[in-house]
Amino acid sequence: MFASPFETAGASDTRRLQKGDPVMGELLAIPRMRLYFLGNSLSSIGDYALWLAAGIWVKELTGSTSKAGLCMLFLVTGTLLSPLTGVLVDRVRRKPLILVGNSATGLLVLSLTQVHHADQVWLIYVVMFLYGLSADITGSAMSALLPKLVTGDLLGSANGLSQALTQGQRLITPAIGVGLLAAYGGGAVALMDAASFAAGVVCWAFIKVEEEQPVPSGDGWRQETAAGFLLLARTPVLRQLAVALTVGLFVMGFFETLGIAIATVGLHHPPTWTGVIVTAMGVTGIAGGMSAGTVLKRLGPGRLTALGLGLAGLAALVMTLPVDAVVIGAAALFGLGLPFVIVGAMTAVQLHTPNELMGRVSGANNFLVTAGQAVGIAAGAALISVLPYRALACLAAGLLALAAGYLLTRPEQRPAQDSPEPARQEHLAG
Fold first, then answer.
1. What CATH number has the domain bearing residue 76?
2. What angle do CA 213, 146, 174 make, to 5 degrees?
3. What is the tens place of the pLDDT at every residue in 81-92?
4. Longest C-alpha distance within the chain, in Å?
5. What are phi and psi of 295, to 5 degrees?
6. What's the confidence (pLDDT) of residue 23?
7. Percentage with pLDDT > 90 across the chain
């Protein structure tokens, strides 16, 4: 009798997966994980296409570049509420929350089909803000559910494959979003995004996962929100990673403007040449995501993150050389390291956080790194006007190397410490 593709992995699957090192093929042998990756990929394609097209759409409607830039500002502002949304994630069952959140966001996006004139741009801003809010809720809920979908030894591979798919989507979604916008208008992009949400909801509806109804703590929102930050502060592994990651994402924010300076000032190309840099990063980002799980098994989450930060720092230094091939190679190195940073940090949070706190800890961590990146983008835009781009690249390289070195010198980040039990016991004791 053939197994249904919507069934969960059976006992024989589990025994087989526990033998030897996990590989992508074994991970995809679990039916519910195939649905997990398919649903998330379909939803993400719509996300990235709309996020990119929204700014261009506003520019076409208003003629204002500054108003176009507000789209991303509203999106990021929504994500900065992650400490509060993390409380919601921990108060309810996560799978129904994902289904409701994605369904509501898909319907919300449909309202953009009514935008036709400049005086309706405010609706795009509202949707982008709520989109950021929804992305934080569903992202934290998925992060909390993943340890219930796979065993701990497969977490790194699952996070790595997610990053590989994300990088691959970023290679194709600009063409999808901009192509639909140019051919049929912004309403067509909204319809496509809503359809991607619907497809994701269908996939999640068939994913079987055991969840108990969370027990209310009796604390208020303020105390529950603080619990996520407190666990980060009291757990050395997570605290050290949060510090390094905040510094790393702050520096990576420089590259929003630094990349344009490298292309125009350093290589004397038009600004559109930054697309070559982004493409090189995306191609090796796929390889980085695919290999992250295997490398994590050898190094542990903390040192995998340090390796990624180190590769990014080396890439920033090499980008100061005004040679096309060298800069493309450096961008490829940067793209390889970025999934290592994300997979290492995300897996560490999942391993060292009690599941009932996962939403709040993810929310606190996301707030720190998102705020760090936002400040880094602003700092990079300000510094590029007073510093030569090579000096800013060297500053970025130095700070990334400092963050990597900090993690490498912390004994808590050694692979022997990567069991979730020590951190949980420390949290309970502290």
1. 1.20.1250.20
2. 125
3. 888 899 999 989
4. 70
5. -65, -35
6. 57
7. 45
Choose the final residue of a domain: 205, 231, 254.
205
Q: Note whether residue 133 is domain-resident.
A: yes
Domain ranges, residue 406: 221-429
Say how far residue 226 (Cα) sits from the centre of its chain. Answer: 23
Query: What is the rounded distance in angstroms from the CA atom of residue 115 to the CA atom of residue 117?
Result: 6
Q: Residue 361: is its pLDDT beyond 60?
A: yes
Nearest residue to 173 via CA among 331, 316, 279, 254: 279
- Which tens digits make up the pLDDT trace of 182-234? 899 999 999 999 999 999 999 999 999 888 888 777 777 788 889 999 999 99
Give a yes or no: residue 7 inside a domain: no
Query: How many whole angstroms separate alpha carbon 335 and alpha carbon 265?
Result: 22
In this structure, the chain runs to a length of: 430
What count of Cα atoms within 13 Å lies in the side-chain half-sphere of residue 5? 8
pLDDT of residue 305: 96
In one-letter notation, the amino acid at residue 157 is: S
In degrees and rounded to multiples of 5, residue 21 shows phi and psi of: -75, 140
Residue 333 CA to residue 401 CA, distance in Å, equals 14
CA 33/CA 48 separation, integer angstroms: 22
Answer for the pair 214, 207: CB distance below 8 angstroms, yes or no. no
Q: How many Å separate Cα 355 from the centre of its chain?
A: 20
- Which amino acid, residue 130? L
Rounded Cα distance between 141 and 209, Å, is 13
* Domains: count for the chain: 2
Q: Of 178, 205, 232, which residue is a domain's last?
A: 205
Sequence-separated (6 or more) residues with CB below 8 Å from residue 156: 22, 292, 293, 296, 297, 301, 304, 343, 347
pTM for the full model? 0.82
* Residue whose pair of structure tokens reads 């705020």 in the numeric block: 371
